[in-house]
Amino acid sequence: MGKFGFEELVKATGYPAELLEEVGLKYLAENAPEVFKEWVDESLSKFERQILDRKTSELIWVACCAVNNSALGLKLHAIGALNAGATKEEIIHALQLASLVGSHSILGSGGVGVLKEILT
Description:
Helix content is about 80%, strand content about 0%. By secondary structure, it is mostly helical. Helix 3 (about 25-30) packs across helix 4, helix 5 runs antiparallel to helix 6 and helix 5 crosses helix 7 (about 90-105).
């Protein structure tokens, strides 16, 4: 892929440079260019495959970042979703679906199942 630096990543993804910088990617590009290149190659290959459209992919990322408590990732991918044509309602719906992950684990083999075993 030749020389591919931070500015090229911003252009390729359409994400705000300040957010990519905030998550440390500019630092990585400047201080560990071989690691940055490996990460970029892996990350951009997901965009290039286009099995899912960009909006759907960004909404999935929104949900994943919410579940993983990644505020910066959530911000980045919510902006990405908006840029890909998602509505505020679709982003909120992705967050609502993500919130079910925790509540269902409580009902399943998580908290309630354990308490039932101990308390009965």
